[in-house]
Amino acid sequence: MEDVKAYIESGVLELYVLGDLTPDERLEVERMALKYPAVKAEIAEIEKSMEMYAQEHAIEPSENLKDKIVNSTLVNLGDDRIFTKQRKHTDEIAYEDDNVITMPKRTQFYKYAFAASVALLLISIYGLVNLYSQLQESNTQLAVLQADKTKFANQVNLKDEQLKLYLDTNYHIVRLKGLPKTPSASMVLAWNPSTQKVMVDMNAMKLPKHDAEHQYQLWALVKGKPVDMGIFDNATVDSAIVKEMKNVASAQGFAVTLEPKGGSINPTLNQMVVIGQF
Questions:
Q1: Which domains are delineated in the chain?
Q2: Which residues span the membrane (predicted)?
């Protein structure tokens, strides 16, 4: 009896009920069940317990989904209810497995329970993927809104800086006008003699567009001589509203010329586009 008890507790009977044994292993279990009533009773108890567990935890899928999964599952699983193949023999020839018992047919419920579990798993995966996609979309929208908010805040700050520039009495406002060859060109800058700062109003700048090989260069007119104040490009949508140039201690006026990219040591006078004096 100790061997029978150990056999029952080995877990092979649970695998037998689940259908996870090889044909030879299944045949061995059936022989043990024929020989030992305790083994047969244990098999029946396991089947009963598993059926009760499946009934308690089963989730009924939709009819349409259930039909599709069950039809596919039944084709692949096959019919495993018959344990031995019937053999023909005469009275003179006896086969060893003639006395093998036929176990009770298993209910179709196992297959439906399995199909329901698969359906629940697929539905859960679909739900998780859909939720993840919605979360990613929400994060993207939030990032766009945050970027717009930051851009708007920067624009407000720059507008405030521009307004303060014009309201600050320490700054001298210089309006540069176009020459005969550039009559529509204009630019506004502010110069603070105390701090020596020179600020160009990019928002009010109206200069002809230049190619990628050239840039505009600002010059301060100091005692009749041009002094380099730095280079800049045409204003764009993303350009700062106010651009700070090089400092200058004193100036009688300012001018802008079109120079090769990177600027020049001396201004190209025939490329002058705007000029303004105090």
A1: 2-129 (no CATH), 172-277 (2.60.40)
A2: 112-132
